[in-house]
Write a structure and sequence with these properties.
The complex is a heterodimer of chains A (766) and B (287). With 766 residues, chain A is of the alpha+beta class. Chain A is 25% helix and 24% strand. Chain A contains 18 helices and 30 strands. A 7-stranded mixed sheet of chain A has the order 3-5-1-12-9-10-11. A 5-stranded mixed sheet of chain A has the order 7-15-14-13-8, with helices on both faces. Chain A has a 4-stranded mixed sheet with strand order 16-26-27-30, sandwiched between helices. Chain B has 3 domains: 47 residues, Uridine Diphospho-n-acetylenolpyruvylglucosamine Reductase, domain 2 (2-Layer Sandwich), CATH 3.30.43; 116 residues, Uridine Diphospho-n-acetylenolpyruvylglucosamine Reductase, domain 3; 108 residues, Enolase-like, domain 1. Classes of the chains: A alpha+beta (766), B alpha+beta (287). Chains A and B meet through helix 18 of A and helix 12 of B.
Amino acid sequence: MEFVGKSVNRVDGIKKVTGSLKYVDDIKMHGMLYAAVKRSIYPHAKIINIDITKAKKLKGVVDIVIGKDFPKRVGLYLEDKTFLAVDKVRYRGEGVAAVVAKTEELAHKAVDLIEVEYEELPAVTSGVEGLKEDAPLVHPDLDKYKWAPIFFPKEGTNISNHYKLRKGNIDKGFENADIVIENDFYIPHVQHVPIENHSAIAKMDAEGFLTVWASCQSPFAVRQALSVAFDIPLNKLRVISPAVGGGFGGKAGTTLEGIVIPLAMRTNGKPVKLTYSREDEFVNSFVRQGLHARIKTGAKKDGKIVAVKNEFIWDGGAYTEYGVNIAKAAGYASTGPYDIENVHSDSICVYTNHPVGGPFRGFGMCEIHFAIEQNMDIVADKLNIDKVKIRKINGLKPGGVTATGEQLDVCGLQECLDEVVKDIEYYKKEESNEPNKVRAKGIAFGFKAPSMPNNVASSAIIKINEDGTLHLLTSAQDIGQGSDTVLTQIASEILSIPPEKITIKTGDTDHTPYEWQTVASRITYCAGNAIKLACEDAKNQLLELAQIKLGIYKRDLELKDGNIVSKIYPDKKVSISELSLGLSMPDGSGIHGPIIGRGSFIPPNIRDADKLTGLGDKPVAFWTFGCQGVEIEVDIETGKIKVLNVASCFDVGKVINPKLIEGQVEGAIVQGLGTALFEELILKDGKVLNPNFVDYKIPTFDDMPKMIIKFVENAEETGPFGARGIGEPSMVPAAPAIANAVYNALGIRINSLPITSEKILKALKK
Amino acid sequence: MKNFQYFKPKSLKEASEILSKHKGKAHILNGGTDLIIRMRDRIIEPEVVVDIKEIDELNSIHLNKHGELIIGACVNLNDIAHNKIVDENYDFLSKAAHMVGSSQVRNRATMVGNICNASPLADTATPLLALDAKVLVYGAEGKKEISIHDFFIWVRKTCLKIGEIVIGIKIPSYSNDILGDFQKISRRKMVDLSTVCGTVLKNGDDIRIALGAVSPTPIRLRKTEGFIKGKELTEEVIKKALEVAVSEISPIDDIRASKEYRINMTKVIIKRGLKKIRQKNLALAEG
């Protein structure tokens, strides 16, 4: 292949490196107005009264909206949220009113003048607490909400989804086990910390056409939610995502877009902008849900695990329109990448009075693997079995069966394990040069499937220009992962046109075709397939015309260097540019017209699982399997951990762009390292105590380990050129691998993230 | 951020007059890395901001005729950290300067700003305390020197009066080779605030210890120093010294660390600092 599998430079590289790319907050328009949000000071309270009279009188204030003005509930999977609070607030920071004014300063001043009278309610401040019978109800009207039928909210409780998986006979499984152990883990809330804060602009013209510019991963999902919330028909609502400076899930679905629209409806055509502060990012966009995990394992002496009983309790926050699906995804992946006969899992999403939980790179997998993979090491130690060996025994293999009963044809997990064991030199003991430091290694598995509805749709359009260059239209968003480049490469490969002759256009619901969302590590796979189909459609049109032109049957023609060439007589050819507007016939007439390829794709044959047992033979598009090994050094006097080396290997089916995929995995390793060692939203009585970079730490350049990154390529049958997703899976084993190395170094288990120096010292002193 | 009046005087006299005139409502702007953030967060809302960066005499770092090191108020931390005189004579001071914030911050932030902020965990305060530095101040009555030991009053409070401007820091001339060790324990190695920081310094037979983030201001541990004085640094002496040190500090629990962890880190910093000195003593004895 000429373009696929090559380290093509990023097609968006120059504009990003030079800073010439315009992000939403860079956009300035004539007459632009600015929004600010009045936010709740209580985690849970009834709104008694909102007095906006003083604020409205402030010169320069254009208008003010409150939640009651637009009370329609929306949500991706469960319609439980309004963009501004109605009747009560459910987290500290929730918007209760929004102001639009001539300047940002005035908008903020007006916000200060809004007086809100509350009646404080008792708050739910953990998932476990929220499950208690006498817990205050965050959503007392849950039974009146609408949701997709694959979710299971329980009215009269704080449970917004109770996912159950029942496989085999769990009691018998434990009876047959030689050992049974139980472990608890806790994973706190973390935040995505994208380099670009959320930003949105809305503008409504005189005819009621509304345009929204948003830094979002999913312009079509945003359009859908806004259309429902504000009763705007889709043909009058245009969402543009000009550029996204990092998403990681935080810009999936909708967040602040719904705040600017109602304001823009009242400004006589003037655009309204709202850009979140960093503090807003931490509190008022999405956060990763907290998790209490309990795993009970039954194993035989020979290392075979025969029964697993899990309980995952998610701290979903104030609204779980998106989070319910994280509980589901964690549920059907609840055993980790292991072949286990008897499984009993409950994954419960619980409403709390915490910031809104939502999608975050890994979509539940990073959290549950922190528990699963430490637990696996604990089981191995208990059985006195090598930690690599226990993964060899129980890890999934081709022909193996997942927790939901899906039999796998392809699975490169064991190959990944072998590679990582070799690359990290797992069995080679290293000594530190310093007496107070200890070195050790750890490994962990990780797997993930795209967590998306079964029938999510993608589409693409390819237009061939008169000079043989192309425009590729898609609504897949380059959120930093490199999709613009990889998708261009796929088009290049099929149409034999080099990437520099292709311009990719994304993220404009009026002009680029439908794409569900840029989430779930699904873009190379889903959008890639749509683009492949669009290019094949265009190619077929070219061949049809070329066979007339050349007098050679299309079976014997191929595309090469921008020409349609005979496979048998290589000098017989016609250029793609010559056919771009159709074929000119010898008599001067023409046929066909411009070549436009179209491709539509839905992943094939994903089916609903059984509602009672959760069992299903094809619940997901594919699984991406892999392994990470780490070497750490711990200072036993200070508790400081330094991650020295990391080896990562994943079965990605096909590497489309080696340089980009390596970068993506490096990013995943380091983001995982951050969650392992530093990151945590410190919550007290519903308040985030560290909504800033002073006290919320992410890794710096200094924390980068040496990284060895490898791939296994067992093709995904339905993937473009065999490719499957990698963006999220590669982060999944990062934190547990470090936790396992900590145990191997010091003999202590840290069952909660982050693994701080303080926790290490405390455990050492025990 | 609230609107404010901005002045950029060219002389100390002018600057001091503006500050006096707007009593308590004016704030000096130096590097701005703390001030601007506190203004943005509306913790302080000065009506007048007096930028002192264009006052010539505040921008140099040099040895005066008495061999004392003068660090001007507006010299940024990167320039201090990379200054040859500082690095050759007081490498621990240069290390402390290097450990403040990020490189971008250090291109703006100054050492004088760092101490005027009077944060209990100011990284550059402990080497200055250990060096018995003087704070050079300009006020209505002219210039004066304040001992660094009298400078910090409480959390974010210095002894400065309205209208006074710190124009620099003076480090006395030492006849001995100074051996010092700056250590910083933080959650993340780079670009973080100190959980505990400290300087352990040897000047002749004199051992000095200063710590940050263990009491309302950065402090010298005089009792511990007194205990060590004249003693050989055996394991036993070090162990006992650590106990004395713990009795001298009053760390707090906060979201960055527990009191207990700060006590433990105090011990680690002092132990490591003293052992470094012991090693040097041994090397000197042998060499």
